[in-house]
Structures are given as C-alpha cells and as structure tokens.
Specification:
The chain is built from ten helices and no strands. By secondary structure, the protein is mainly alpha-helical. It has one domain. The mean pLDDT is about 80.
C-alpha cells in the first residue's frame, strides 16, 4: 500500500507539473525505477500513465491549434502518429539492458532541452526559418524520439514550430496536441507489452489526471520559473543517479 501511495503521489505531482511547466516524466521515471521496475518497464509504464493528462491538455487547447505555415495540421498529425509509432516499436525492440545503458544519456539530453527551453530560448526567437519539408522532417524525428523516450519533446517542438513561423501561443497549443498524438500511437503499442505494469500505470494515471486538474487551477497562482528550477534540479539529480547507479 505504501508503494502504491507513493506512485499515486508521484502521478499527482507529475500531472500538476506537466500542466504548469512540463517535465512530469522526471518525477514518474525515478519513482517507478525505485519501485523495482527496470528503466525500460518504467519508461513504458510512465508513458501510458501520463497519456490521459496529455490528451486532456491537447483537447483544452484545440481552439488555438493551427498548421505550420504551408504545412496543414492534418499533415503534422499524421507525421506525429507515424513517428510516435516507430519510436514505440524501436523501444520495444531495444533489449532492457541496452535501454538501461541508454537512459542516463536520454535523461541528460532531456534535462538540457528542458533547461534551454525554460531559461535560454527567447520567446518567438527563430534565427532559422523552416519550410514545409524541413518542418515535416523535424517533426518526424521529434515524434520518433517522443515515442521512444519523450523527455524534452515539448521544447523541441516549440523550437521547430517557432522556426516554422508559428506564433508562440499557437505553437504551445500545437505542441500539446501533437504530444498527445505521438504518445497515443506509442501507448497503443505499449499496452501489448509484458513490460507494462498495469496496476502502477492505472494508479499513476489517476494521480496524473487529478494533478493535471489541480495544475490547471493553480497555473496562475504558482511561480512557474521556480517550478522550472525544481524540474531542472530533479533532472540533474536523476541524471547523476542514473550514471552512478550500478548496472
């Protein structure tokens, strides 16, 4: 009971964190690893658990969703669906031991992307302008990464969409919608995996949904910059812990 209470609390925290600043997987991944799961099983379970909250965020922002320049949203949708499915298949074909060696580098990369997007990338900044083809290619690569691991995809998409000329507010809405799309295709694949821990996923998913609702209410009441600092600190600590963890 204590273990599942911890998983529930982690889900609430991650759901609220995703609604406020993003980076909820920095909470769910270490919690599930500490519960005894392998990094591969923890990543699969975390992806499934956080999906309902991500879908709700995408639906809530539907009115602001647009295309990216000459690239219509339906094309971004299809690209994200295909890339997410490919990433999920790649994850399931990766042996658990191999993924265990990869995950510290993936978390490090996600932490750097989160820190860059939170504190260094200027809103609307775009020194390079992407056309439809390069926007499609960038989104496909991001979707593969999203289906495989997912940490930091929000900032990667924000950067690509900004460079495609999408206003920041619309880019945020598109990012939320496409994150749900690419994770949906991965989740469809993951539900068939024996690595998925259903009870933990359902428990954490319920917590993430509650946390997402609480985060939506608290978004105007909490210092988002301070929360982002906490997220980066968690990412750094998790990266160090994964690198020194015996394999």
């Amino acid at each position: 009971m204590a273990l599942y209470l911890l998983i529930l609390v982690a889900g609430i925290w991650a759901g609220a964190q995703n609604a406020l600043a993003g980076g909820g997987s920095f909470v769910t991944l270490p919690t599930l690893i500490l519960s005894g799961m392998s990094p591969l099983a923890a990543n699969i379970t975390s992806t499934v658990a956080l999906f309902p909250g991500q879908s709700a965020s995408g639906i809530a922002a539907a009115k602001l969703v647009t295309g990216a320049g000459k690239l219509p949203f339906w094309a971004l949708f299809v690209i994200s669906l295909g890339g997410g499915a490919l990433g999920g298949l790649l994850l399931l074909s990766t042996p658990s031991k191999v993924f265990e060696h990869l995950v510290p580098y993936l978390v490090l990369f996600a932490t750097v992307m989160f820190a860059w997007g939170s504190f260094y990338r200027k809103s609307g900044e775009a020194s390079v302008h992407l056309g439809p083809f390069r926007t499609s290619a960038a989104q496909f690569v991001i979707a593969i990464y999203g289906g495989y691991f997912g940490g930091g995809i929000g900032f990667l998409m924000m950067a690509a969409l900004s460079m495609a000329g999408v206003p920041t507010r619309n880019a945020a809405a598109i990012k939320n919608a496409l994150a749900g799309v690419m994770n949906a295709s991965a989740v469809v694949i993951f539900v068939m995996s024996p690595q998925l821990h259903w009870i933990a996923a359902i428990t954490m998913g319920c917590g993430a949904t509650l946390g997402g609702l609480a985060g939506s209410w608290a978004v105007q009441r909490i210092n988002e910059r301070a929360l982002r600092v906490v997220v980066v600190c968690i990412g750094v600590a998790l990266t160090i812990g994964l690198f020194v963890r015996p394999v």
